[in-house]
Design a protein that fits this description.
By secondary structure, the chain is an alpha/beta fold. The protein is built from 2 helices and 6 strands. The chain has 2 domains: 30 residues; 91 residues, Beta Barrel (Barwin-like endoglucanases).
Length: 122
């Protein structure tokens, strides 16, 4: 392999990394779109997946993969209202949903049952 070939290979690898990084950054900036639901009455006072007690009146949410303690902005696409919540539980366990909000969180952005939302990690 000559020097020119090595330089081209390094250049291609670097540009691929930059494109991938930009794509990840763009996805993070756009957020995760999908359906949100809320949970609360039957779970109030029970332990969440991170060990704390669930409080339906707090601004928290359940997400399948985000680390506990992550803060995310959830925006209701219908109302345009948004709220920052802390991830403290796992879920939702219903297909097609991206986040389960506490009752207080859902009420704050106008989610009565399910709603289309965008979830963006802060």
């Amino acid at each position: 392999m000559n020097v020119k070939t090595v330089l081209v290979a390094i250049s291609l690898a670097a540009s691929t990394c930059l494109v991938t990084t930009c794509a990840h950054a763009e996805t993070a900036a756009r957020g995760q779109a999908g359906m949100a639901s809320w949970y609360g009455p039957g779970f109030h006072g029970k332990r969440t997946a991170n060990g704390e007690r669930f409080n339906t009146h707090s601004l928290t949410a359940a997400h399948r993969t985000l680390p506990f303690g992550s803060r995310v902005r959830v925006t209701n696409k219908t109302t345009g209202r948004s709220i920052v919540v802390r991830i403290n539980d796992r879920g939702p366990f219903v297909g097609g949903r991206v986040i389960d909000l506490s009752k207080a969180s859902a009420r704050a952005i106008g989610v009565a049952g399910v709603a289309r939302v965008v979830v963006a990690r802060l």
